[in-house]
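dumping this here so i dont lose it
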């Protein structure tokens, strides 16, 4: 029996017979009149709780010192604005006067937005997962005044139900255990310290991974594929972007078409399913069923930012415009519904409106017939699977239930007429939907998630060459560089004119990657220079002993444990992204220090990549980049030219293992000197060199010759 399991078993046994205690008074007396301390916060999630009868504090010295001074345990509640069950627990428990009285009397209550403080969320979620085997939000954790967790879980109902203990009962028992179970508490906390120490030391390796690891990982992950509807694993289904990207790479490397088929099947099923918004574009966070039909309706910036480049890659591999149009629709949704006037991107849209999950997005058949007319409405309902019974609580989530060809055959209409009806119907219903009560929008702006979207826009511009996307890149990059930097260091979050909270590893990693992507889109060397500075800062201040990166820097607030940002979650791990950043910067600059650091990361995580390819898929993608020896494509243009030569050749095909540089005759460059120095256009024509490990081909001035070089 592990120490972690002992911790959990010891605490859960406390609930035996605890119903006998009722809502008795303990040795604490009711305090002074409540003062909720969240009113001056910028997080929309915290502000949602500012009027609760609970005396909430934000995480900080005031609350922590109060717990120490009064010898009270801390009740830590972590969630986020778009979280449906967070709203449920707020309504059931945090707005309940009786429960609030117990909370205020027995605990110092701290509310945290997990999106603002991923370090706090990561630390205590690790504890909850160790103790219970699962996690989620809202997360409820009980801490000692020195921040050590001693019990935790996710959603608790106010009274016993769903097989879960009631929150009121949990509160009373956790307060009693803290004050009257000191010996057992001390023993459990020592076991917890040991469990964390073992986790931090586990899995270290000392050799570079073998090339066979990619074949092993792809085969192992393919066994997790759900063949009927696509996706990795069973419901609830998440997009698993890094895994699907690895499948694409493996198809490129081996020609084994079933890896491509798994990706196309999944992305097609998602885009046809209810997880996709067929009126406004964009994806919900995940599907609650195997079919991608019923989403958890919250829409997150990061999901859409990660899915957009994946759809682009599949378009480049297959040539099928369907995938390009989904990518465009994602960008349209984000620009329309999630972009601030100053160029930043908001965080999320809520799952709920008017107190109901999904109400904004669902339809009755009668509503559609009334809006579109009987004939057009019938066509629309056939295509999108709309029935009188509904598929979600008596109403309908739109999803593609029949092909255009099938609808045309059943209705006797031509396919072009069906297309026209569907397009017009989507416009009409979107206009009607826009007059409904909208879901709440979390309008804080997070550096890391904005950077993911900046990367997505850079890829979209590379592929389409449409000037509008270039404008969005410039606008968002300027926002990040002018607003989220202070004295050369990054900040985490921005709202209402205020940027604050010291940035975390993911902020540095994603922003450096995004600025490299922006450079490869617009070829402004200032982006590349800033990306290098961010990477150097992260390498100096976040670096861990095994080559990875801690979530927090060496200047951050010291929490109970300092954890590494190791495994991929809904977003790729900061260490996996930094691995790729160092590899790319080696190609851009020729400086060995970046390659040496990347190899140290690969050695440190070789065992983890073998044991858990799902959680380390971003590392595997970066390792493929490393072992393939990426193309270093150098484009030279004549002096005073503004064109990007050979853009369609370089960016119009699927080639994930490349870096692209632009140089101009007679203009100094900050790029890799051994590649740029002494080279120039040939006969005044746009010229390309294709290099590997900074050894270059002869110059080419013809598109076909460049294409042949890249194919080789």
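and the seq i came up w/
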């Amino acid at each position: 029996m592990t120490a972690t399991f002992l911790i959990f078993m010891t605490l859960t046994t406390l609930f035996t017979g605890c119903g006998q205690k009722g809502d008795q008074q303990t040795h604490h007396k009711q305090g002074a009149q409540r003062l909720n301390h969240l009113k001056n916060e910028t997080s929309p999630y915290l502000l949602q709780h500012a009027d609760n009868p609970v005396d909430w504090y934000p995480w900080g010295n005031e609350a922590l010192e109060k717990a120490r001074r009064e010898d009270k345990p801390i009740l830590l509640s972590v969630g986020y604005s778009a979280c449906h069950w967070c709203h449920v627990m707020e309504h059931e428990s945090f707005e309940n006067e009786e429960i609030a009285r117990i909370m205020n009397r027995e605990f110092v209550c701290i509310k945290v937005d997990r999106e603002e403080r991923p370090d706090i969320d990561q630390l205590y979620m690790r504890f909850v997962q160790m103790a219970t085997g699962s996690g989620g939000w809202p997360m409820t954790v009980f801490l000692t005044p020195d921040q050590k967790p001693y019990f935790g879980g996710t959603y608790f109902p106010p009274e016993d139900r769903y097989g879960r203990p009631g929150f009121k009962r949990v509160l009373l028992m956790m307060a009693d255990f803290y004050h009257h179970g000191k010996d057992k508490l001390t023993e459990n906390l020592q076991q917890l310290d040991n469990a964390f120490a073992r986790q931090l030391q586990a899995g270290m390796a000392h050799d570079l991974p073998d090339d066979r690891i990619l074949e092993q990982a792809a085969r192992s992950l393919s066994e997790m594929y759900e063949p009927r509807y696509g996706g990795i694993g069973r419901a609830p289904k998440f997009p698993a972007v890094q895994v699907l990207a690895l499948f694409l790479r493996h198809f490129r490397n081996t020609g084994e078409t079933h890896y491509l088929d798994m990706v196309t099947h999944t992305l097609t099923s998602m885009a046809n399913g209810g997880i996709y918004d067929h009126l406004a574009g964009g994806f919900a966070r995940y599907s609650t069923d195997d079919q991608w039909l019923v989403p958890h309706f919250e829409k997150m910036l990061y999901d859409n930012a990660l899915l957009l480049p994946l759809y682009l890659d599949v378009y480049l591999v297959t040539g099928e415009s369907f995938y390009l149009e989904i990518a465009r629709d994602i960008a349209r949704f984000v620009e329309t519904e999630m972009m601030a006037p100053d160029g930043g991107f908001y965080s999320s849209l809520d799952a709920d409106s008017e107190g109901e999950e999904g109400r904004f997005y669902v339809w009755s058949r009668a509503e559609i017939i009334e809006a579109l007319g009987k004939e057009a409405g019938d066509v629309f309902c056939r295509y999108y699977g709309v029935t009188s019974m509904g598929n979600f609580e008596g109403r309908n989530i739109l999803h593609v239930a029949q092909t255009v060809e099938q609808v045309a055959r059943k209705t006797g209409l031509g396919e072009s007429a069906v297309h026209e009806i569907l397009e017009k119907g989507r416009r009409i219903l979107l206009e009607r939907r826009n007059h409904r009560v909208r879901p709440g929008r979390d309008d804080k702006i997070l550096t890391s998630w904005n950077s993911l979207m900046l990367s997505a826009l850079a890829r979209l511009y590379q592929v389409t060459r449409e000037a509008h996307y270039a404008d969005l890149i410039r606008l968002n990059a300027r926002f990040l560089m002018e607003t989220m930097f202070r004295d050369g260091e990054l900040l985490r979050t921005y709202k209402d004119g205020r940027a604050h909270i010291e940035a975390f590893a993911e902020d540095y990693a994603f922003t450096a990657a995004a600025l490299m992507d922006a450079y490869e889109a617009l070829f402004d060397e200032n982006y590349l220079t800033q990306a290098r500075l961010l990477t150097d800062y992260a390498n100096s201040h976040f670096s861990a002993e095994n080559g990875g990166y801690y979530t927090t820097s060496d200047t951050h607030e010291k929490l109970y444990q300092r954890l590494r940002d190791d495994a991929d979650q809904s977003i790729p791990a900061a260490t996996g992204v930094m691995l790729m950043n160092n590899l790319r910067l080696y190609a851009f600059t020729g400086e060995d220090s970046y390659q040496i650091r990347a190899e140290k990361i690969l050695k440190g995580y070789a065992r983890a990549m073998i044991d858990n390819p799902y959680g380390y898929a971003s590392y595997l993608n970066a390792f493929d980049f490393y072992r393939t020896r990426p193309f270093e494509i150098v484009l030279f243009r004549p002096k005073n030219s503004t064109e990007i030569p050979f853009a369609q050749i370089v960016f119009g095909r699927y080639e994930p293992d490349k870096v692209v540089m632009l140089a101009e005759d007679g203009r100094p460059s900050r790029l890799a000197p051994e590649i740029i120095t002494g080279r120039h256009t040939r006969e005044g024509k746009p010229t390309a060199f294709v290099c590997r490990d900074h050894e270059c081909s002869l110059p080419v001035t013809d598109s076909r010759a460049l294409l042949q070089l890249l194919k080789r």
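The mean pLDDT is 92.
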